[in-house]
Design brief:
The complex is a heterodimer of chains A (384) and B (391). Chain A contains 12 helices and 13 strands. Chain A has 384 residues and is an alpha/beta fold. Chain A has 2 domains: 128 residues, Aspartate Aminotransferase, domain 1, CATH 3.90.1150; 245 residues, Type I PLP-dependent aspartate aminotransferase-like (Major domain) (Aspartate Aminotransferase, domain 2, 3-Layer(aba) Sandwich), CATH 3.40.640. Chain A has a 7-stranded mixed β-sheet, with helices on both faces. Chain A has a 4-stranded antiparallel β-sheet with strand order 9-10-13-12, with helices on one face. Chain B has 2 domains: 167 residues, VC0802-like (2-Layer Sandwich); 208 residues, HUPs (Rossmann fold), CATH 3.40.50.620. The chains are: A alpha/beta (384), B alpha/beta (391). The interface between A and B is medium-sized, with 16 and 13 residues.
Chain lengths: 384, 391
């Protein structure tokens, strides 16, 4: 069966690597392939690549001189979150065993916390309102003497809502100065302004493949002076925080991708906002009862999550796919397990709502969206 | 000994199962078993399969023993297998081999020798041979003999040409060699039951074609991939097989519109029987095999099974009909399909499954619902447009 060319609206899942980025990655694989720890010229040029990537990412997140903090290179968002959450908790285990996280955290954070809880930690979950934003009052009430870590994401991966991380950090610190605040900013970089100084978090997680960089490459920014326990031991690379030979191609690719993402951000966000409006108008034209997930809250422009009443998500996804439009579903369509995801449940979405998430990238064009809007309209009508 | 360790040869004696019972058909059964063993071992270098009277010998480079045993674990018709030492018919050589076996036993392990002469012209009786070899083993290793309740048994088999000595018996999967019972069509879904049903039919000697009903976009192509993976698992036992993917969506929609919602499941199943019968019959199939079970879900009642079977053009075999779910799962784990089956890609979209399916469908109601559509033409069309994939 022949497929129509793909209109890729799943950029919150992953993105295509930019040509500029893959060139950098390739150079580091084929030409400057040295180990950064080597004393010879190949080692030095590899190290230079890493320094360059560090400067680029730090500049992209508002700490160009590294005066506030430093980076540890990781294998991606999951490892960055794990190091931020588990690494800080373990470093503070003598002081207390309580942590706080939001109801819409990514599994990388949730499951890291779940592991700590199996080892005796207590955790409190901050509820969100119907639009998917955490309650800061609830957060304040949860902070206690035992509290060591607060985890709050910046942009939610499923519905795109922006969490008031900076305000949360201020309020937490007003109660207790020495609490570690971790922020998962994986969906934020290149989509909304990210300034680690303003965020007020101690650790901030990033992942290259969400902004047209390579998979398997991420970073954790950590504030100077914050304590982290390494997840494993080894050769002592990266100040012992993450032993292992540096993934120079991945790191260089991340740096280049971050530079482009931030340089082009304003240009793309204007387009993406328009794309969201077009698709929403198309969805409304079907007459089907619908909800914009996260409606009423500030949202990142690259994600549009729509819930249709009475339309199961997976058939909608596959119908769109059969016409070339690739999206994600927010729930499973099965007799036994027809439940919305935890995030959708947290915003009170019932099982008779089918959610699809459409997310845009650097390469998404207006023509793609026009086509996708027509396909979406047809698909929703055919499934009613 | 001059030869390097890597050149050492090993022997596995295959002990056949029910094939013994098959009288004049024995040649056919053991022929199929040898063919199947050669297929399973074909990828291994320098391994030979030699039929002998009532036994099959597999000779292999010693370093491949683990792989040979693992592959033979998929050989239906095999009762058990014994990694053995091949010797001459000389009592001294046999005793040396028995001593080597006994050296692997823990100290203090009781043992006995059990001998079996196929060649009755051998100068010693079985009992005499056992006694002589046992004496030598006891002398060499100090292990105690216990002829009544030994912890280990060292077996000696004598044929016209050679002797075998072994003490390890590895169970085989039993059943009958594939290819000796005819061809069937297996209704394969992404669930736990149908792969096990297919495996059970293979174990009774059937070859099979798998038939999968795909309802895109109500089930995604991930489910099709999953069914392909399951078919590949079955192919490990079966050898290459064909998976027919039947594109079912349009017919399913028409059937849902044709009758009352509570009959929908029965109408779909009847159509699956019709289409699968056509596909299987075209490949020489003599029956259909399903994973259906009595009472596992509310709609699997005797009434419904009867109404569903009525639409089939071939006999419907249900190897799991009386199994408990836990027994099916246990078998699926053994076969290696369970891990795949529980992957969360559902092949039964809730859109098509009524909230309250009929538990006692009546043929007359079903036929009334089908009267409005041309079920025969639909089944022909489904069979004709099925996509055949070799796995």
């Amino acid at each position: 069966m022949s497929r129509p060319p793909d209109i890729y609206l799943d950029n919150a899942a992953t993105t295509r690597v930019s040509r500029e980025v893959s060139q950098v990655v390739l150079d580091c694989m084929e030409k400057e392939y040295g180990n950064t720890a080597s004393a010879h010229h190949l080692g030095i040029s590899a190290e230079r690549r890493v320094k360059e990537a560090r400067a680029r990412l730090l500049a992209a997140i508002g700490d160009p001189e590294g005066s506030l903090g430093d980076l540890v290179w990781t294998s991606g968002g999951t490892e960055s979150d794990a190091l931020g959450v588990m690494g800080s908790a373990r470093a503070r285990a003598r002081r207390g065993h309580h942590m706080i996280f939001s109801a819409i955290e990514h599994p990388a954070v949730r499951q890291s916390i779940a592991r700590l809880c199996r080892g005796g930690w207590q955790a409190s979950e901050i509820p969100v309102d119907k639009s998917g934003v955490v309650s800061l009052d609830a957060l304040e009430r949860m902070v206690g003497e035992e509290t060591q870590v607060v985890a709050l994401m910046l942009v939610n991966n499923e519905i795109g809502t922006i969490q008031p991380v900076a305000e949360a950090a201020r309020r937490v610190r007003a109660i207790r100065q020495d609490i570690h605040i971790h922020c998962d900013a994986v969906q934020a970089l290149g989509k909304i302004p990210v300034d680690v100084g303003e965020l007020g978090a101690d650790t901030v997680a990033f992942s290259a493949h969400k902004f047209h960089g390579p998979k398997g490459s991420g970073a954790l920014w950590h504030r100077h002076g914050c304590q982290l326990d390494a997840m494993w031991g080894g050769g002592g690379q990266q100040d012992g925080l993450r032993s292992g030979t540096l993934n120079v191609p991945g790191i260089a690719g991340l740096g280049e991708a971050a530079r482009i993402a931030v340089a082009e951000r304003e240009q793309h966000t204007a387009r993406w906002t328009g794309f969201g409006h077009m698709l929403l108008a198309a969805a409304k034209s079907t007459g089907c009862e619908l909800r914009v997930n996260g409606d009423g809250a500030p949202r990142a422009p690259h994600v549009l999550s729509l819930a249709f009443r009475g339309i199961p998500a997976e058939p909608l996804l596959h119908t769109l796919e059969s016409r070339g439009v690739l999206v994600s579903a927010g729930s499973a369509c099965s007799e036994r397990d027809r439940k919305p995801s935890p995030v959708l449940q947290a915003i009170d979405l019932g099982p008779d709502w089918g959610t699809v998430r459409m997310s845009f990238g650097r390469e998404t064009t207006a023509a793609d969206i026009e086509q996708a809007a027509a396909v979406l309209t047809d698909a929703v009508r055919s499934l009613r | 000994m001059q030869s390097a360790a890597s050149d050492k040869r090993g022997v596995v004696v295959l002990r056949l199962g029910e094939i013994f019972l098959k009288g004049k058909n024995r040649r056919k059964f053991s022929g199929a078993l040898v063919t199947n063993a050669r297929r399973l071992l074909g990828a291994l270098e320098d391994v030979t399969v030699e039929p002998r009277h009532l036994r099959v010998l597999v000779r292999h480079p010693a370093r491949l023993e683990r792989q040979v045993l693992e592959r033979l674990g998929h050989l239906f018709g095999l009762h058990s297998m014994a990694p053995a030492t091949l010797t001459t018919r000389d009592v001294e050589a046999i005793a040396e081999a028995a001593i080597a076996e006994a050296r692997d036993f823990a100290s203090g392990t009781t043992f006995k020798i059990e001998s079996n002469r196929r060649d009755k012209s051998f100068p010693l009786t079985s009992t005499e041979l056992s006694r002589q070899v046992g004496g030598r083993v006891q002398q060499a290793t100090g292990l105690p003999v216990d002829v009544h309740t030994p912890a280990r048994v060292i077996r000696v088999e004598l044929t016209e040409e050679s002797g075998f000595v072994f003490s390890r018996l590895v169970p085989g999967p039993g059943g009958l060699p594939i290819g000796t019972a005819g061809h069937v069509g297996l209704l394969l879904s992404g669930g736990i039951d149908s792969p096990v049903a297919g495996w059970s039919a293979m174990r009774r000697g059937c070859t099979l074609s798998a038939i999968y009903f795909h309802s895109f976009p109500f089930t995604g192509d991930r489910t099709k991939e999953k069914v392909l993976d399951l078919a590949r698992k079955l192919a490990v036992w079966h050898g290459p097989l064909k998976l027919h993917v039947v594109h079912f969506t349009e017919v399913q929609k028409a059937l849902r519109a044709a009758g009352p919602a509570e009959l929908a499941v029965v109408l779909y199943r009847r159509m699956m029987m019709r289409a699968a019968s056509r596909i299987a019959a075209a490949e020489g199939g003599k029956a259909l095999v399903t994973g259906e079970n009595l009472g596992q879900v509310a709609s699997q009642t005797l009434d419904n099974l009867a109404v569903i079977e009525e639409a089939a053009g071939l006999p419907v075999l249900r190897p799991l009909v009386t199994f408990d779910k836990s027994e099916i799962i246990e078998r699926a784990e053994k076969i290696g399909t369970y891990e795949l089956s529980i992957q969360p890609y559902d092949d039964c979209c809730s859109l098509f499954v009524p909230r309250h399916p009929a538990t006692r469908a009546r043929l007359i109601d079903v036929q009334r619902a089908e009267a409005g559509v041309d079920v025969g033409a639909m089944a022909d069309e489904l069979a004709a447009r099925a996509e055949a994939i070799r796995v």
